[in-house]
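**Sequence, structure tokens**
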Amino acid sequence: MTQTVEKCTVRLSEDALFAFVDCVVPDDQLDGLVDQIVSQLAGLGIDPAFALPDKNAVAGIVHMAVAEQGSVLEDVLLMEGLPSGEPLEGSIDWTGDYFTQSFRLDERTGAVDFRERTSDPSVVKDQHVATVTQPAPGTPGRTLSGATIEPRAPSVFAFRCESGILHEEGSGRVHSEIDGRLRWNGSELAADRVHVVAGNVNMASGNIRHLDAVVVTGDVEAGAEIDAEGSVEIKGLLDGGSVRTGGDLLVRSTLLGRKGARVRAGGGVSARSIRTADIEAGGDVAVVAEVVSSSIRTGGAFSMPRGRVVGGRVCAVDGILVAEVGSPAEVTTSLELLPGPSGRKQSAVIVVLGRAFAGARLVVGEHQLDLQEEVRGPVQTAVVDGKLTLLPVRPQGSRRG
């Protein structure tokens, strides 16, 4: 006659996806324990779609658990249901670097080459520029009690082709239909024909309005305007002129603002330096040398790892990276992280690699830190006990708390 083991409980997890046993293994009643586990398991109402482990399988499970835990067993897995399958996330695999907002470094000297960007948005007709993978839902799962487990929905993914772009739905391959420049705003891809302005944009040339991309070989002077749906590249100065572009703005020299002049870019903005400017960008803003007394607001990240921000206000969503903020004269200078899309947890930080001077103001969401003395980096913002502070930069690969 099989003896009953007093301390033996077979149970389902709260989500009914797993069956566990908790028990004390007696020295001389192993067969009775196995019979009891099999009996209790059969009484849990397991869905017939799942095969119950037989006595030999249960005995093997118990032996392995005893080898690991000893005679007192807890949370020993007997069987599990069918978890839901993960969804396929939408993605874009670019064939080249078309959009990075930065300049190349001279490998020999370490100096920044303002004539060369790390990316090149130029394409030719029929060029394969990307492969798009559309999202797909995961597969439903099933609990041990027979309930359906609905799969997690894939993240929101948006990709749309505009003028000059062909998307092969079957293969996902994306091609340019023209010779031109790519324009990407995070969800829409276009290829724009290029309009080249030889020389300066000023009173003599008149304002420039163009449906595609614009390249200016000279300067854009005070009072002049460029309005383009495509990206804009200025090989000289943006000296007090206004620019509106549906794509990226690249200024190979200084971007200098004057009263009434504004820069509005649907994509990113790159410049050697920025002074007294009013800038709004949908993408990342990258600067090499300095930002002085300017108002910059970007829906992406702000990056200037070798330069300083003095005066004015820089606001970004996806993080701020600078070498220095403020000045020894304690000029009021504000770096602010803006909230991202609704429902997205704010995880971006402000990083100062060199010095943060007294007079600098750092803002992350509802938290604000006004520096009363100089802080030497590298440091990054963190909220500790409800207060914003600066902590040493974590090594790469470290986990956020």
